[in-house]
Amino acid sequence: MNQDRRLHPAWIVAVVAFAALVGAAGFRATPSVFLHPLHAEFHWPLATISAAVSVNLLLFGLTAPFAAALMDRFGMRRVVCAALLLVAAGSGLTVFMTASWQLILCWGVLVGLGTGSMALAFVATVTGRWFVRRRGLVTGVLTAGGAAGQLVFLPLLASVVEARGWRTAALIVSLAALAVVVPVLFWLRDHPADVGVTAYGAFSDEPAPPADGRGAARRALGALRAAARTRAFWLLAGGFAICGATTNGLVGTHFIPAAHDHGMNETTAASLLALVGLFDIAGTIASGWLTDRVDSRVLLGAYYALRGLSLLVLPSLFAATAQPSMLVFVIFYGLDWVATVPPTVALCREYFGADGPVVFGWVFASHQVGAALAATGAGLVRDQLGTYAMAWYIAGALAIGGSVLSLMLRRPPLAPAPAPGSAPASAPASASAIASQS
C-alpha cells in the first residue's frame, strides 16, 4: 500500500489512543472531587480515603511495564479494551460500597489496574511502533490527552457531585470508559504492517516485530534487571518519582481540599485544576516539539526546577476566591504539569533501545510510587497539622532535587561504526545489551 496517501493510518491510531487515554483519565479525576463527599457520608478519615488513592496510583504505575509487555504479545487492542472494561467496572461498582475496603478494591485495585494498562507505557508503545518522524510531538499530544483529560473532567464531575451526588458522577465516568471501547475495537491497530504501511516517516519496509515468546512477566522483569544495572535508570526513576509526588500525588489529589480549607468552594477549585489541564496541553505539546530539537537532559532539569519554585510559593496564594496570583500559578504550573514525559520517553529510548517502552514502564512505576507516597503523606500532614502548607514546601524542595538528578545524566556512549562490508544494525540495542556495556 502506498504511504503517500493523504492521511497516514498512524494518525488514526494516534487519535484512537488519545480517546482511550482521555476516557481512562475520567475516573482518575475523581479522587480530589470525592474526598469531602465520601468523608461527609461515611465519616472515613481523609487519610483512609487517601490510602485508596495511593493504592490506585501505585497499581497504576506497577501495571505499566507488564502492560507494555502484554501489548507486545497480545496486541494493544486487546489489552486496551480489557483495561477500559476494568475502569468501567471499578467506577460503576463504587455506587454500592458501604465500607472503606470496598473503596480500596474498586477505586484502588480495579481502576488502578485498568488505568495502569493505558498509562504512559501505552504512549511509548504507540509512538515507538507507528512514528519515526514527529515522535516527540505525538508523545507530547498523547501525554497531554491523558493528563489534561483527567483535569478537564473535574468541573463537570464537581458540578454533578454538587447537584446529583458522587454516585451519579461515578456512573458517568463508567459510561464514558465503556463508550471508548467501540473506537478501540474498530480502529486501533497493533503494527503498521497490519494495514500494509510502514511507520510514519520510515524510509524502508520493515516487518512487524515478532511476538516476544518470553511472556509478559518475564520480559518486563528481564528488562528491569538489565536496566537496573545502569546509572541512567536510577537517575530517571528517581526524577520521575519526584514528578509523580509533585503532580498526581499532591496537587492532583489534594489541591481541591486545600483550597476548600481556605474557604474556596469545590467547583471553583476544580475549575482551577481544569485550567491547569488546559495549559498542560500547550505545555506538553511544546515539550514534545522541544524534545525533537533540544537535549532532553537539559529540558528535564529546567522543568523540575521551575516546578519546585512554583510549589514553594503556592501556600501563600490560597484564598476564598481565585486571585490573580493564583491564576498566574495555574498558568505557570499547568505548562509544566507533565512536560517531563516526552523527554523522559526519549531518554528511555536513547539509553535502552528496543526495550525502551518496557523500561519506561518501570520508570513510570517509580512515578506512581512517588505519587502514592505523596497522596497518603499529604493526607497525614493535613490530619496531624490541620494544614497542607508543609506538604507544599516539601514537594517544592523535592522538585528542585529532581532537577539535579536530571542534570547528572550523561550521554550514552556511541555505538561503534559497522566494519566495511558488514550489515548495519536493523534495530536499537536492547536494555540487556546496553547494560552489558555499562
From TrEMBL:
Compartment annotation: Cell membrane
Record Pfam families: MFS_1 (PF07690)
Its membrane topology: Multi-pass membrane protein
Keywords: Membrane, Transmembrane, Transmembrane helix
Domain Major facilitator superfamily (MFS) profile: 12-414
Transmembrane segments: 42-67, 79-96, 102-124, 136-157, 169-188, 233-256, 268-290, 302-320, 326-347, 359-378, 390-409
Ranges of Low complexity composition bias in the record: 422-438
Superkingdom of this protein's organism: Bacteria
InterPro entries the record matches: MFS, MFS_dom, MFS_trans_sf, Proton-linked_MCT
Region (Disordered): 416-438
Record keyword Transmembrane helix present: yes
Principal location: membrane
Protein name: MFS transporter
Organism the protein comes from: Phytohabitans aurantiacus
